[in-house]
Amino acid sequence: MPGNAFRIVQVVATAVLAVAAVGLSTSAARAQPTPCPGASCDVIVTVTGSSTAPVVTVSANELKMAKGQRNVVITWKLSAPDYEFRADSITAHTAPPAGGKLTTTSEAWAAQCTTLNHSATTYRIRNLNTKAGPLFYNVKVFRKSTGAPVVLDPAIINDP
């Protein structure tokens, strides 16, 4: 009987350590915000996957503004020859919260961010960075041959 109790303790301890290791690796794998240290920063946008299941990625899933830096110009640069930006490619993420993703109202986005210009491969905004907190937004690129949109919803973290 004492041998069985020791074995049970051993199994439970191993399970606890395994769960702890998974928790640590998951939190370590979580991306840290990418700093935008000055008056401007670039975000590279790519599209991977197949034409039937494309996936948009950005070089900064959470872009953190430098504390106190005002009027930051953010430029998204599209590196996907079969896709293009359009006038509505960078907008507030206003869809209902899902999967841990929150939303930003159009009003909150407009109070902080203004579109400066865009082309098929670049999209530029000015972020006032006067109100603390995240701004959840959509990056929407369009397949040139079909016009089909592909969307990702990253965030800008303001730090006035």
Structure description:
This protein is an alpha+beta fold and 160 residues long. The protein folds into 2 domains: 1-30; 34-158, Immunoglobulin-like (Sandwich). It is built from 2 helices and 12 strands. It has helices at residues 2-29, 106-112, and strands at 34-36, 40-49, 54-58, 62-65, 72-78, 83-84, 90-92, 113-118, 122-127, 133-143, 149-152, 155-158. The strands form 2 sheets. Strands 1, 4, 6, 7, 10, 11 and 12 form a 7-stranded mixed beta sheet that branches. A 5-stranded mixed beta sheet has the order 3-2-5-9-8. A hairpin with a 5-residue loop joins strand 10 and strand 11. Residues 5-29 have low confidence and may be disordered.
